[in-house]
Amino acid sequence: MSKSKTQNKKAKAAAKTASRKPAAKPAPKPKGKSAAKAPVKKTIPVAKKKPRTVAKPAPAKKAPQKKPAAKGGTKAPVKKAAPSQAVKKKPTPASKSVPPLPPTKKPPAQPVKKAVAPAPAAPAKKVATPKPNPVAPNPVPAGVAAAEKGVAPSTKSVPAPSTKAAAKSAAAKSVLAVTAGEPIAPPKPPVISTEKPVATKSGALYYDSHMHTPLCKHAWGEPEEYCAQGVKAGLKGIIFTCHCPMPDGFWPTVRMAEGEFDLYLSLVQRAKEAYAGKLDVCLGIESEFFPGYEKYIEGLHQRAEFDYCLGGLHWQAKEYLNKFEQGTIEGFRRTYFDHLAVSAETGLYDCVAHPDLVKNYHPDSWCFAIIKNTVASVLDRIAKTGVAMELNTSGLNKSYSEMNPGNEMLRMMAERKIPVVIGSDAHKAPRVGEHFVTALNNLVEAGYEEVSYFKKRQRIDLKISDVISSIKKAADANA
Question: Is 14 or 78 the better-scoring residue by pLDDT?
């Protein structure tokens, strides 16, 4: 029994071990399988990759935003749609519109500057308010006053000419500040010189008081050439009266530039020194008259010691035509003559140049009889000022071939005892003193006994008979 018990025990033990072995064997198998299936379990990261691919369309649906938040707080910011959209927008054409944004910010800065610019103009307007009488204190005719209402020249200061002397440049700067309508000094009565003219050795006695230099851009020849012709013409002296500079780009093609004013002075001085003892060379200027620029002209005349200031009213100026060429041809001519009287009433000029120059405006229709009454009233006003008027011989070379003025108007001037100065208006040297004897004879026929010229801005009167004989005598002596 003991052996059988032991055997049974052994058998039970063997059975137990046998039953345990097969149970233990399957255990390692699942371990091996788990090793093989390990990559399958590692598909979890694959699942993580899939949401990334799904997350691309997700930003449009906004659904994936909740998923990354559920999967993990740390990964959620990585999968945010906002950064991905920002990255995608950079390569898109919309990103090209980003660089132009800075320039859009600059334009607002520019209007700020423009807004600052008109600020200084405000005081100019305040100064321009006392404009009602730019020719103070003389009254302006109603017709001219109406024409002048729209005149508002710029208040910008013109750059001062380059000068060697600091004093001259400082004076020039103060003169060049132009303000529309600013009143000028009251006109003074003309000064008649007490000097008794003495003829030169050759017998010369009279002056040609109107000629130009190449600085006006439509004259030819050096000043010395004009001097040489003056000697041949039997003259005692000549006065250069080149077209003055003007501010604001006023008709710049027919006048010296602002920076050439000092050059003009030096050219005349050079000619004066070259002909010392042979011909008296004087400094003058043909100053433009245009309503609103009186203050500028007043300052210009103070910038040098002029012997003669000649008032030039030019209907041909683009600015003049644009402003006053309205209505009929005769209406325009009446406006011109009205301004002729105003120029004399300013007291800025010693003499008024080529008084009826406007007859070259549509010369085919010129008829003095039509305009005669207007001319009569204008001459009455000029006679009251004492300002002289010019007999310009160059009119014979213009479209309406007649001296300025014509003989009928010359007779009306003689009736009012308006002084007359003869000028050739030479733009070429050979025309200095041209047609002077004819002009003097016209004066005699009109009723004049005397003819004038200016020195140091004082009028000198001579007997016409003496001047005619002096010209003939000196011309023969210098031939």
Answer: 14
Which pair of structure tokens corresponds to residue 27? 């255990």
* 317 DSSP 8-state letter: S
Helices (H) and strands (E) in the chain, counts: 20, 9
Give the closest residue to 227 by CA, choosing from 270, 190, 196: 270
Q: Which two structure tokens, joined as six digits, stand for 137?
A: 């204190």
User: Which residue do the tokens 């060429």 mark?
Assistant: 325
- CA distances in angstroms from 105 to 67, 94, 95, 102, 109, listed in the order given: 41, 18, 17, 5, 7
Q: Where in the chain are the domains?
A: 46-76, 184-478
**Beta-sheet pairing, 450-455 with 458-463:** antiparallel
Q: pLDDT class for 16, splitting at 50, 70, 90?
A: low
CATH of domain 184-478: 3.20.20.140
What CA–CA distances, in Å, run from 85 to 65, 73, 149? 13, 20, 66
What is the Cα–Cα distance from 282 to 303, expressed in whole angstroms?
16
Predicted confidence at residue 361, as pLDDT, reads: 97
The answer to whether 432 touches 426, Cβ cutoff 8 Å, is yes
Q: What is the DSSP string of 333-396?
A: HHHHHHHHHHHHHTT--SEE-STTGGGGSSGGG--HHHHHHHHHHHHHHHHHHT-EEEEEGGGG
Farthest CA pair distance, the chain:
193
Whether 177 contacts 157, CB under 8 Å: yes
271 Cα distance to chain centroid: 33
Burial class (CB in 10 A: 0-12, 13-18, 19+), 90: exposed
Mean pLDDT in residue range 271-284: 98
Q: Are strands 388-392 and 237-240 parallel, antiparallel or unpaired?
A: unpaired
- Per the prediction, the chain carries an average pLDDT of 77
β-bridge pairing 351-352 and 308-312: parallel
- Residue/partner pairs of 372-377 with CB below 8 Å, 24 or more apart: 372/408, 374/333, 374/334, 374/337, 374/338, 375/337, 375/409, 375/412, 376/412
Crossing angle of helices 223-232 and 261-274, rounded to 10°: 40
Contact 360, 398 (CB under 8 A): yes
How many whole angstroms separate alpha carbon 107 and alpha carbon 112? 9
Q: What is the DSSP secondary structure assignment for residue 106, as one 8-state letter?
A: H
Place 8 in a pLDDT band, splitting at 50, 70 and 90.
low
Q: Cα-flanking dihedrals φ and ψ of residue 453, to 5°?
A: -150, 170
Q: How many angstroms separate the CA atoms of 87 and 96, rounded?
A: 14
For the cut 50, the answer to whether the pLDDT of residue 383 exceeds it is yes
Count, residues in the chain: 479
57 CA to centre of own chain? 64
Contact indicator for 350, 387 with CB cutoff of 8 Å: yes
